[in-house]
Amino acid sequence: MANLRVAVIGCGGRGRGHMQVLAKFEDTDLVAVCDLVESARNSAGDTFNVSKRYDTIEALLDNETLDAVFVATPAHLNAEASAPCLERGVNTLLEKPPGMSVEETINLRDTAKKTGAKGMVGWNRRFHPIIVEATQRVKERGNVTQLVGEFHKSITRLAQSRRFPEHLMDNMFLETPIHALDTIRAIAESDVQEVHSVVQRSISDYKDVHAALILFENGCVAQLIANYTTDARLERYEIHGRDISAYLEGVSHGTIFCDGTQHKLTEPGSSGSVEQNRYFLDCVKSDTPVSHPAANLDEAVKTMQLAADILSGLR
Fold it and tell me: Per the confidence metrics, is the pTM higher than 0.90?
């Protein structure tokens, strides 16, 4: 079978991260890159030996026959960049968030269903080795009873960087902490029954404090804590079950407590991106649906709806 022909849209840090992963796969050819910024696409093209370089998505799609596209544009442009790919039936892995609203995400899902394109969102914690192992260990004993997900950053530093437009600055919950939200949804493996939240603009002009209590239909209870009032990035999770608990820090290490013992988890060198991209490309190769543990576009709509429900708790 011929190698998969793949392109990457967005040549910033996340796009180059995908390029580094794709370069490791012997059955994949990175045939084109696309970015509006000439220096970015030329730098990526030179680094990864890609001669086809495009400044618009339309030009890319008009001139290349592709098996898959990886979209890694700035967060507020992910839906806009992914839509034409899905409209043309190109299998698309897009970075999170899949849209800045539930409606944008629904449009992507419906477009993919019409054309038959596979759509998957890059919530790579679903494939993170430490999170996967801890979840498996807990579920071996029964249902997950309670979850905690945390993701914190500094709104002060982000404002000083002037990297993001104002409408995204006021919804940075969708840019990074949504990783934690999607992770607890994926671990719970259940639809949401109740959401109670408080969201505040505490030390800035932007939403910078988010706290939510989520009850899933299977009885699992989750707490989501995400603030931008800190001075540093912090991500952590707790997974509790029958006589077992996992505490995951970083997420580079963790500890599982059960049977009076402690089992240490350490980062094996992957954040989940390699496993995630491999899974997506295997679905393309075998023409099989994107399903759990991955976030297909049906899953993406559910995570975005939960995010919208939490954000509606603005005080």
Answer: yes
